[in-house]
Design a protein that fits this description.
By secondary structure, the protein is of the alpha+beta class. The protein has helices at 6-14, 42-48, 52-58, and strands spanning 23-30, 33-40, 68-73, 78-83, 88-93. It has two domains: 1-64, no CATH class; 66-111, no CATH class. The longest helix has 9 residues, at 6-14.
Length: 127
């Protein structure tokens, strides 16, 4: 997979580009009525390409430094957390998408953290 233009993005951010502003996707005007507007954030462009270094750069992190890695096993419904040396230091049960809304596979960067989030499974039990 061809990587994005990381140096260009880095330069744009240094010059003041805001990576949190969305890019306008499609705007259709019909006699003063807007039919549809789609916004895509820069992080989403990188995510769709599974370009982890680009995602880290957009978030203001070193694109080549790996601090931790979380590996999700959809078959086992388990997440394993590895440190920068590759040593597993945490494992937990997870719940992924339903058959109708399958969990997309790929490489991602964590952008939000909810310290006290409690998920509830479709069966009503806490995970």
């Amino acid at each position: 997979m061809r990587s994005g233009h990381r140096e260009l993005v880095k330069s744009l951010i240094l010059l003041g580009a805001d990576p949190k502003l969305p890019a306008l996707g499609g705007l259709i005007l019909f006699e003063q009525a807007i039919a549809r507007v789609n916004y895509t954030y820069p992080i989403n462009f990188a995510s769709r390409r599974s370009d982890v270094p680009m995602m880290r750069l957009i978030l203001g992190k070193d694109p080549h430094k790996r601090e931790r890695q979380i590996v999700f096993s959809l078959g086992e419904q388990r997440a394993r957390v590895y440190d920068a040396t590759g040593e597993k230091f945490f494992s937990a049960k997870v719940s992924s998408g339903k058959r109708v809304y399958r969990t997309r596979q790929g490489k991602f960067v964590i952008t939000d953290k909810h310290l006290h989030h409690q998920a509830i499974s479709s069966a009503g039990s806490n995970l």
